[in-house]
Amino acid sequence: MNYLKSYFLRTQEINFEAYESLSEILKTSSNQEIHKFVVQELRSMPTEERCSDLLWLCAQKLNYPEFYKAWHGKSTIHPEIAEISAVGHTSDTENLNRQLLPELLKQLTVSDRSDLISLSLTLSEQQSESTIAKRVGNRIFSQVNEVPPSIEDIGDLEQALFQLCHTLEKQKLIVLLYNTEPYPNLVSLCNQLADIVTIAWICESPIESISIRTFHPDSDNLHTALQTWLQEIA
Question: What would the pLDDT profile of 109-128 be if each residue is shown by its tens digit?
């Protein structure tokens, strides 16, 4: 720790040698105070790829409350929000929020009667509903460690999801989409699946659908909002 303090006192940038050393320390150390210290020091440094990579390594060892406090310093916000919220709203930190989103979603809990499936999809606007149905089906089945059946269209996907509920012995499947563009064909597919699965979408723009619940990715209380919604639909 003394080495780290002396290093950050001497420099305002991360050169290659320092990056390599810091990366190794952050990957192997179990001392969370080191990770907190690095996060605090990187706040004042220029935004560059090396800094982002180091912050990401710190995020692997710190939970949301710890990372938030390290990034912002002494927090004065409500404890409930400090527990889980994003790391800020500047343009430099919004991308980091998105990178940390999968870790936040892992902290969500559902009842024993439900199964929560988080999906991040890379699609194009030109893809047809049948192609998207295949992609969605394959990803859902892989998330629950099941072999996906042959899916050619929305009808096959509906039947596959019915069977999946039976196989998993769950009354409800909850699909949470994030880092996924709300293209019309995907939104249409989700609307058609609404009788089978409960769907929410973390995206910047509200989706005009009574079947899909939307949440903004940069909301201060995203985790709390998601967990409250999950409890409401249980």
Answer: 999 999 999 999 999 999 99
